[in-house]
Amino acid sequence: MADQSKASSTRGTAGRQDTLDQSPPQGPKGAFSRRRLLGTAGAGGLALGAAGGAAGYAVAPTADRSAPLTSLGADTVMFHGKHQPGITTPLQARGHLVAFDLTPGAGRKEAAALLRRWSTTAQRLMAGEAAAHEDTDVARDAGPSSLTVTFGFGHSFFARTGLEKQRPVALDPLPDFSSDHLDRTRSDGDLWVQIGADDALVAFHALRAVQKDADGAARVRWQMNGFNRSPGATSRPMTARNLMGQIDGTRNPKPSEPDFDQRVFVPASGDPAWMRDGSYAVVRRIRMLLDDWEKLSVGAQEDVIGRKKATGAPLSGGSETTAMDLDKTDASGDLVVPVNAHARITRPDQNGGAALLRRPFSFHDGFGPDGVPDAGLLFVCWQADPLRGFVPVQRKLDRGDALSAFIRHEASGLFAVPGGAAPGEYVGQRLLEG
Question: Spans of biased composition, class Polar residues (predicted)?
């Protein structure tokens, strides 16, 4: 994914972001503000270079007022913009995915009020401020830590709000796949929220604030927690690894590519109009059968994936970013990249050009009575149309992916994620008030 981590201060000046530059709002008069406690980095901040952040100053009652925040805490992502945050934002260290169902009797009016509250809360927290009401102080001493909050609508939302005519065709339910072992209680939902941050307390603070804002209008249907490697944990920027130890995301489309927006975002001419500049998120809880996987030799694991475990390079040779030679054979005439290798099957040129922007989190929810880890991938992928993105790729994986023996799809959801909110708007306003 493209590096979008240019320096920014906790004051909301231009920095790491994936949306338009807009100054974060000031809190109400007299309200407690984490942003105010952090001081003004613009006056004394130190630019740390293209991959760093600007220094802020923690001013908690017992803190040393001269101690600067690290770039990790000071990095800010803008709430307002053409697209919602959390789509092209670089991977964050901590994530929460949560789905809500509207409460009985709640309809379009209540949903609009909820999205207005949620948007206000997201804007404040992403700017490093406290929530407007009953802030829990969980993130009192922290900077924004690249917090993002992203909102989407599920298929059932439109019937519950009387907006069936505005439901996109692309939001039709996903077909059944042979690898599915879905728990319906942990799938779908009227509303979906994705939260990401580079600090666990900042992420939890946002999760709690969103849940409290929903009181009376919506209730939690399911919630999942994920993580990634922390920024700065490696000596140089690297593609993430999953819990199988594999480099994961090498062939992600990049914003620098000319057709990136076409693949990921609904075009300005798209239908319905309220989804223009938005995207569709497919969410899958994929259990990794790690005990079985770890019994394989490294060589066998590499044959399943089609890439070297240590470097991510294709088995046909080169480095991680070298194009895979699908026709290369060994001395015996066998294909170097096995015909059922995961990397072969998922290549866009093997799927009619279908491409996904994968932005997952790993998860580990403990161990079963038999000691088997409940762990794997919270798979989140973004595309302009899931019927041309996720669905054809998953159908092909169903027909012979070597990795299928080592994973199980346990939950699923598809959500329409509208474009970003302009200043003065809330997310989804064009749908709910159009």
Answer: 1-12
